[in-house]
Design brief:
Layout lengths: L7 E5 L4 H11 L3 E3 L3 H4 L4 E5 L2 E7 L12 E4 L2 H10 L5 E3 L7 E5 L5 E6 L2
Parallel strand pairs: 1-4, 5-8
Antiparallel strand pairs: 2-3, 3-4, 6-7, 7-8
Organism: Yinghuangia aomiensis
InterPro entries: Glyas_Bleomycin-R_OHBP_Dase (IPR029068), VOC_core (IPR037523)
Protein name: VOC family protein
Length: 119
């Protein structure tokens, strides 16, 4: 019935777009894609890299997602970990899933993301 996930949405506080851009475009290297005009008036921004899309939307009573998170497959997980560390983002490696190299990080608003070595 389902072929893929179209996008994942994470919340940001009002006015948090520049922080989101610095992380998703600046650190992760994703491209910002334009939001449709009817949605752009709400704030937030959308990012894409290949078939991966992350939408960040304004939530008035913002609280970062600390448990719920997207998990992204990464071609070179060591390069990404180094880039995140250099940018000051946390890199917390986990060996809880045998045979899977992965770590957790946070965007500039504290939302949790998991990075998984490509399989």
């Amino acid at each position: 019935m389902f072929d893929a996930i179209d996008h994942v949405q994470l919340a940001i506080p009002r006015g948090g777009e520049d922080t989101a851009r610095a992380f998703y475009a600046g650190v992760l290297g994703m491209a910002e894609v334009p939001k449709p005009p009817a949605l752009a008036v709400r704030g937030g921004c959308w990012f894409a890299a290949g078939s991966v899309q992350i939408h960040v939307g304004v939530e008035e009573d913002f609280r970062p997602a600390r448990k719920a998170h997207p998990a992204l497959l990464v071609a070179d997980i060591d390069v990404l970990a180094a880039r995140l560390a250099e940018a000051g983002a946390p890199v917390r490696w986990s060996d809880e899933v045998p045979g899977i190299r992965r770590f957790h990080t946070e965007d500039g608003h504290g939302n949790r993301l998991e990075m998984v070595a490509g399989r």
